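Hi,

I'm pasting everything inline rather than attaching a file, because the server keeps stripping attachments. The sequence lines come first, and each chain or strand is labelled.
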Amino acid sequence: MLAAFTLLLVYQLIGEAVVHFAALPVPGPVVGMLLLFLTLLARGATPDWLRSTCNALLAHLSLLFVPAGVGVMLHFQRLGAEWLPIAVALVASTVITIGVTALVMKGLQR
Amino acid sequence: MSGRFADFWVYLSASPLLGLTATLVAYQAAYWIYQKARMNPLANPVALSVAMLVALLWFTGTPYPVYFDGAQFVHFLLGPATVALAVPLYANLATLKKNLVPLCGALLAGSVVAAGSAVGIGWLLGASRETLLSLAPKSVTTPIAMGIAEKLGGLPSLTAVLVVTTGILGAVLARGTLDLLRIGDPAVRGFAVGVAAHGIGTARAFQVSETMGAFAGLAMGLNGLLTAFLFPLLLRLWDA
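And the predicted assembly:
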């Protein structure tokens, strides 16, 4: 577990370094994910010790959203003032996205 | 309040223990309720924990930065968790290769429509620029979405709230939308839910079927990757 966690942090650190020095407009962890994906691709398999830790971390993924979610208390004013555009945008966009994605995939499968 | 209790409160308020413990306890309680509600998407554990913690902070008069001093240890794990998404992505490699063209097409369309329709509708209804930039990555899983919002100049904490709300909406609205369009293939259903409603949609899809869940997870990872690279570039072109 410790080895896997260390590996994840090292990839994240490399990701942050790449983003910083190449001035990429993406978050460092995303580059870290891409680099780990490429490593797995080159290696041809995911070692068990890495898979078990990653699965454990991702199983509790929703917990990790909580501290940021509590930040909603900083935005009550904005949400109160802009609730209509935000609510309509979220609901309509979610339905449209599900529909468009499904129809495009179904159309291209034939 | 007795003097001793007040002393203890002052001591606790200055340490990260309280914020961290409250976060974990609230999440455990929320997850228990979610299970009792038979995983009903409306009883989303993130939404429930956030509601409990906001109420707690409000009643105790604790400012968010004080809470975050403790909760940041949980928050920090979003980084390594994002890196860890490479593992399920790689596990779905065979499926990915077999359906490369339909998946890429659907991903590109879904990703652009998710952000474009949200920003477009928000803009038409008069949302501010900061709100629009925070809305753009709302279909991407939170750790990536917050990173993107930060890079775009939106408000990461607002984005987190919008992302969680989108996930809950997607989990609730997916079945009706897909049935209406007569989409029966679980692979297509899963992929659509994953693109639109990230991790919360994926968790929901896994409860329906293994195939649907696998495709939703694949969609979540790919959409995060695509959006992270595509959006900042689009915004640069827009501002140029």
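The helical segments of chain A are 2-21, 28-43, 48-59, 61-64, 66-70, 76-81, 83-109.

If the labels don't parse on your end, tell me and I'll reformat.
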